[in-house]
Design goal:
By secondary structure, this protein is α+β, with helices and mostly antiparallel strands. It contains twelve helices and 18 strands. The protein has helices spanning 63-69, 128-136, 144-150, 152-169, 181-197, 218-236, 240-253, 258-268, 271-281, 287-290, 327-336, 360-363, and strands at 5-6, 14-18, 23-25, 29-32, 36-42, 45-50, 53-56, 78-80, 82-87, 94-97, 102-105, 112-125, 141-143, 201-212, 313-317, 320-325, 344-346, 354-355.
Length: 381
């Protein structure tokens, strides 16, 4: 009688495989390769789990099988049973990803942005019998891709929640959330552990590879533009209100009259650089508010007692009020002839408007220049 050998070679990406022949004998030889397990079922009841090695399916080796068969004689006895092989090698390249973007609000710019996530992980079948009983059922087997699909709901729901928590609750911008990939991956691996253990599985090396946004999405383009603008302002030391005032001055420079002429000081002679320099040099942390115009911060009507306000010079030319300007800009206006000692000015602490020549901080720019030093004598003369 030929020896009946039962084995599973070259499993590939298959995780579970049911041996097709259910007609076995007590002389059958079961061969289990490394990184495999085999499970014998009789009448839907698990009889035994076999590790790597060669096993005989005799009733002496499998006590429960002997009870179920109640064979009155020794030797080769036929019986019907099922054998499942389980591949316990750890596949580390199982892929996952969000099929549809997550619509999340960026906490910094308050815009809704579509977010996608992709990654990979590994799964090991730690309890083969539990896995087969809970996952396989009457199926003949399962491969890696089918297993990922089976757990897709659990995988994506926790992933969505973790990304939303980082962006919405921890106030991390959509474009910066990738800096948390390692931390989020570790947390998710721990949270997934109990979900997979229920099915006899252990999760390994879970990694979110990327959290991305569509490059061509209009909202994403606007968000990146806003981020670039904010970065430029930090580098230049300016604020949004300062940029708006610069725009107003630039527009005024094209208008006729003294106001438009003086506005050209700010635009033609480097208003942006002067604002940045003053912000860092003169006013420290109060700089951004210096050039804004909140209620009560503007100078009083010409000739009226002024309220206390922010330290900045306003000027009055031909009925037009301009400013605030730094002393550096006023000095440039003096050089161009658009500002003179009689120009009326006002700043914080002054009781009323006054000629520029009477303001201590500005008097130095009107002092006559010293004569040039005498030429040294000519030693050859």
């Amino acid at each position: 009688m030929a020896l009946h050998v039962i084995k599973w070679d070259n499993p590939g990406t298959d995780l579970v495989w049911r041996f097709p022949d259910t007609e076995l004998t007590t002389m059958s030889q079961l061969v289990v390769n490394e990184s495999q397990s085999a499970i014998l079922f009789k009448g839907g009841q698990r009889c035994d789990v076999f590790g790597a090695g060669r096993h005989s399916l005799s009733t002496q080796n499998i006590p429960l099988l002997g009870k179920l068969l109640s064979l009155p004689f020794s030797g080769s006895s036929p019986f019907a049973a099922e054998i499942y092989f389980v591949n316990q090698a750890i596949p580390l390249n199982l892929k996952f990803g969000t099929t549809t973007p997550l619509q999340l609000e960026d906490p910094i710019y308050q815009v809704v942005v579509p977010v996608r996530a992709f990654g990979q992980f590994g799964l090991q079948i730690e309890d083969p019998a539990l896995f087969v009983q809970k996952i396989i059922g009457a199926n003949a087997g399962i491969d890696q891709s089918a297993l990922v699909e089976y757990f897709k709901g659990i995988l994506i729901s926790r992933l969505r929640s973790k990304i939303a928590q980082a962006i919405v609750r921890q106030k991390i911008g959509v474009l910066e959330v990738e800096t948390m990939l390692d931390e989020m991956s570790r947390q998710l691996e721990q949270e997934y552990a109990s979900d997979y253990a229920e099915y006899g599985l252990g999760i390994r090396a879970f990694r979110i590879m990327s959290i991305s946004v569509p490059e061509d999405d209009p909202t994403v383009l606007e968000l990146k533009k806003a981020k670039a603008t904010a970065a430029r302002r930090r580098i230049e030391g300016t604020t949004y209100s300062q940029e708006r005032q610069f725009d107003v001055l630039e527009t005024s420079a094209g208008n006729e009259g003294a106001g438009g002429a003086f506005a050209s000081i700010g635009t033609g002679l480097g208003m942006g650089q002067a604002i940045g320099a003053m912000t860092q040099k003169n006013i420290g942390t109060a700089g951004p508010a210096l050039f804004s115009t909140p209620t009560g911060a503007m100078p009083p009507p010409f000739g009226a007692p002024p309220p206390m306000t922010l330290a900045a010079f306003y000027i009055h030319i031909n009925g037009q009020q301009m400013g605030p300007f730094t002393p550096e800009i006023l000095s440039q206006g003096l050089a161009s002839g658009q500002f003179n000692p009689q120009t009326m000015v006002w700043r914080e602490g002054m009781l009323s408007w006054a000629p520029a020549s009477q303001v201590a901080e500005l008097q130095g720019m009107f002092a006559p220049s010293p004569p040039p030093p005498p030429s040294p004598p000519n030693p050859f003369g």
